[in-house]
Amino acid sequence: MDSSCLLLHRKFRFRKRNINMYSSLSPSPSPPLSHNWFHPVFLSFRGEDVRRGFLSHIHKEFQRKGVTPLIDHEMKRGGSIGPELLHAIRGSKIAIILLSRNYGSSKWCLDELVEIMKCREELGQTVMTIFYDVDPSDVRKQKGDFGKAFRKTCVGRPKEVKQKWKLALTSAANILGEDSRNWENEADMIIKISKDVSDVLSFTPSKDFDEFVGTEVHTTAITSLLQLDLEEVRMIGIWGPAGIGKTTISRVLHNKLFHQFQLSAIMDNIKVRYPRPCHDEYSAKMQLQKELLSQMFKQKDMVVPHLGVAQERLKDKKVLLVLDDVDGLGQLDAMAKDIRWFGLGSRIIVVTQDLKLLKAHGIKDIYKVDFPTSDEALEIFCMYAFGQKYPKVGFEQIAQMVTTLAGKLPL
């Protein structure tokens, strides 16, 4: 099969079969696509820490960008969150959790947090975190001054309630957010947060893969192989011949899963970026690391003075990394030499035509992309030959014959 045929096959390999491939932020299960967002942003905060200063400033910046956040001014507070507030949380596209020193001292804030994390999982709500004069580690482990305030709130509470709060705090602290202690200028941080919120509100779900079919079976199987529920680093391989659709599958998979991770990146065309033989392997590896970290941190012109930078920057981050079109061990050494380079919960997906390469790198969990089924192959041929999913009248038999003779790769 020549290169033009391979390109055409990749384009038509997975034609749409009434499947919407977009999956939002929910880890499991996928959120209902019909969910309506009534509010752009909901803010969860401890009033005594931020109301007069930070909150008023960020509210003003939001309004400047045309975003009206829904702020809970301790409305109708009773023993538990009422239906009005529940509706507000569940109807907000973005929830911002403003974690401050005394956030854990409020039962109300903790109940809000539990509901927000539930919406993130079930509805695909975007959740952003701001750590305001508090160490994310203190929130995650409920220690320091934050932990003292939280433990006071827990006194006399049922065990199951305390456990829900703890899990919600840990999950929220694991979301990569802005730490006010890292900013010299609070105004700059607020501008950055406002831009991030505006970008999310302007985001339109990707339709890049709407016209492909056949990917759902693959992505479901690979997701099972990834075992996303395990708090460990896992590296898996996607293997198959050229033109079979590996790149498409990996991109659909990334689109489905990336919101579950602190950082994510797709490194494509790696064998072109790092050709073999390579006359200057060290420089090629440095360039790959620079591109990888630039994608991960969404920052241009990353400084990578040596090959230990990727490991140093990513070792405590939960990342999703797709390495596509890998054909040499040197490429893997540059970007994913060891699972200890990445934080707990990370998943690295290596896409290649070379099964031996995966095994040489110690990757044991490998998904083989098989040829399309007979029905899919026929559909691929018909889309290209007739511009529709089925043969034109009078061409049924010959279309089936061509598909069969082409060995399930009709293009």
Automatic annotation (TrEMBL):
InterPro entries associated with the record: Disease_R_plants, NB-ARC, P-loop_NTPase, TIR_dom, Toll_tir_struct_dom_sf
One family name in Pfam for this protein: NB-ARC
BP term (GO), one: defense response
Cross-referenced SMART domains: TIR
PROSITE patterns registered for this protein in UniProt: TIR
Keywords: Hydrolase, NAD, Plant defense, Repeat
Domain TIR: 37-201
Lineage: superkingdom: Eukaryota
Gene3D superfamilies hit by this protein: P-loop containing nucleotide triphosphate hydrolases, Toll/interleukin-1 receptor homology (TIR) domain
Name assigned to this protein: Disease resistance protein TAO1
Source species of the chain: Cardamine amara subsp. amara
Upper classification of the organism: Eukaryota, Viridiplantae, Streptophyta, Embryophyta, Tracheophyta
